[in-house]
Specification:
single chain, alpha/beta, six-stranded mixed beta sheet, five-stranded parallel beta sheet, 16 strands
Length: 563
């Protein structure tokens, strides 16, 4: 059931209880978790935090803790499946679900007692009506007759048979209509308002919102934009909503009394370049490893590299300057940098090189854009350099969001640079060796075992980012107009010993794309039709794991399904 008053129905309900926080492994969930932790700290609410990366971990965590807790808070997990059927909880257990995954399962929507949804109602939810999906059993069980009535009652008996037949027919028609409605409702997977923004709204309603919480809400929204989960329109609308809070929190008068101390934290609205990590890298490296610029200039080709040199020449930037660390560049060049880059980018057909975002200043020394923090936290969470557990990586990523742990954030930025370089190398290699093939209704690419950096791409977020970069680059490199409108499936080895691959499906990259993904349902159907050994363990339904041997029959089933 949807909650209308989050303060009364959610926060005050858990205020004097011990609660279990189950948090998914994505940056938006981390930010929502940080805001909730800060609120709980204010009010001395006891909680236990358990990171969960998939349905299996969620079930295990629930089974381990169900006897100790009555209240469970699920962040970015749990909304899109029937929780009661999966977890089989006792009747007194209550789940508060704050999740961006859509569509929300109808049983979760209409359960009045155990499932409480912390979801923004102004999202375009299109929930089917209760009567179209659920039906009382009493309506269906007509007065069954054993047929041993005397002949005087035969007429009434015949009328009953006709009535029963009509009831069955109505039941069948209703069932068919129900299937149709559910199919239309569940066909596409997409994302709603950032969970961090929902949690910040709760803090604001209770007048407990701090600048730190506002920054986490900004990072949560930026995570959705960086990983291409929401439309540009939705992003701009939400940025506008946050800008009002930023003005309120960071407004200072010019007088001495209200001026900020040097080490204070300031958030400012920026109309900045969408170049990945450019303030912590060199301009040259950032341009080479940003998806938009790399794809537009086709940097995997010799021609593309020449174009890049021409681009710098057009701006009048010496190579010596653009290849050194950004903070070491001449101040005279940095003064009008954004305008100069934008002007030259327009000449080279790159019209969307600036984006509305926010930056944070810690005193005079440290400045970060929201996207920098997203890249850093994501790469810390999927770090494959050390064989550390998912929980350790989760805690490090969570720590990197605190301003007291800037060393962790810098560590994440270095990892993010390596990750972006690995993605660009793999994109260049896939395009130059023609690994992207058209399978009819979709494009397909498989990373072979032994490919450099293949271990990194066995992780879901990294593989999704690679797929999106590869699809954009392929669209810029191909002359086939039909291919430019196709979605893409990408697969990579997951566990060589167990012989499993991880597969992700992403929607077409068109200007008007609504970011709705149909691969989740298609994967389920294809697995069912071919008896493929698959595991739907991820909260995003468009990511699955399957056995290596079943890959070809699974793909054949997908082709026939989507053709």
């Amino acid at each position: 059931m949807f909650l209308s008053d989050f303060r009364k129905e959610f926060y005050e309900a858990v205020l004097n209880q011990r609660v279990l926080l189950l948090v998914a492994s994505d940056v938006d969930a981390l930010c929502a978790c940080k805001i909730l932790q800060a609120l709980f700290q204010c009010d001395h609410v006891q909680y236990t935090l358990v990171p969960v990366s998939g349905w299996q971990e969620l079930e295990t965590a629930f089974l381990e803790h169900k006897d100790q807790f009555q209240y469970f808070i699920l962040i970015n997990c749990g909304a899109n499946i029937d929780l009661l059927e999966v977890l089989q909880p006792e009747e007194d257990i209550v789940f508060f679900v704050c999740d961006t995954h859509r569509p929300i399962n109808v049983v979760n929507v209409y359960n009045e007692t155990q499932i409480k949804l912390l979801v923004k109602q102004d999202d375009d939810l299109e929930i089917p009506a209760y009567d179209d999906i659920f039906r009382d059993e009493e309506e269906d069980s007509g007065n069954e007759s054993d047929g041993s009535e005397p002949s005087g009652k035969r007429q009434r008996f015949e009328e009953e048979i006709v009535e029963r037949t009509m009831k069955r027919r109505r039941r069948r028609e209703w069932e068919a209509r129900r299937q149709e409605i559910l199919f239309d409702y569940e066909q596409y997977e997409y994302h709603g308002t950032s969970s961090a923004m929902v949690m910040f709204d709760l803090a604001w309603i209770m007048s407990k919102d701090l600048n730190d919480m506002l920054w986490w809400a900004i990072v949560g929204l930026t995570d959705q934009w960086v990983h291409d989960k929401i439309t540009q329109m939705k992003y701009v609308t939400d940025i506008g909503a946050l800008q009002r809070h930023v003005s309120r929190h960071n407004h200072r008068n010019g007088d001495e009394e209200n001026s900020l101390s040097i080490d204070c934290m300031r958030i400012a609205f920026e109309y900045d370049l969408c170049l990945a990590l450019y303030q912590h890298w060199s301009l040259y490296e950032s341009l080479c490893n940003t998806c938009y610029t790399s794809a537009s200039l086709k940097l995997w080709s010799v021609q593309g590299q020449k174009k890049l040199q021409e681009f710098f020449a057009d701006m009048g930037f010496p190579l010596k300057q653009v290849k050194q660390k950004f903070h070491s560049m001449d101040i005279s060049l940095k003064e009008n940098l954004r305008e100069m880059i934008e002007e030259s980018a327009n000449k080279f057909g790159m019209k969307d090189l600036r984006i509305q975002t926010f930056g944070i200043h810690f005193g005079f020394k440290n400045k970060f854009l929201a996207s920098d923090v997203v890249y850093a936290a994501s790469s810390l969470m999927e770090n494959t350099e050390k064989d550390e557990s998912g929980t350790d990586n989760f805690i490090k990523a969570l720590d990197s969001l605190s301003r007291s742990n800037l060393d962790k954030l810098h560590q994440g930025l270095e990892l993010a640079k390596k990750q972006l370089c690995a993605i660009q190398r793999t994109v260049a290699s896939c395009i130059c060796t023609n690994l992207v093939i058209s399978q009819g209704p979709f494009l397909y690419c498989y990373l072979m075992e032994g490919t450099p950096d293949v271990k990194l791409f066995s992780r879901p977020v990294s593989l999704c980012l690679l797929s999106k970069y590869l699809l954009k680059s392929f669209i810029c490199s191909t002359k086939n107009k039909r291919c430019k409108l196709l979605p893409m499936i990408m697969a990579a080895p997951m566990d060589v010993e167990q012989g499993t691959v991880i597969m992700v499906g992403i929607p077409p990259q068109t200007e008007s794309s609504d970011k709705k993904n149909f691969f989740g349902r298609a994967f389920e159907k294809a697995a069912e039709n071919t008896n493929s050994r698959t595991l739907h363990n991820h909260f995003d339904m468009s990511i699955i794991e399957l056995k290596m041997e079943d890959r070809s029959k699974f793909l054949d089933a997908l082709i026939s399904l989507l053709s």
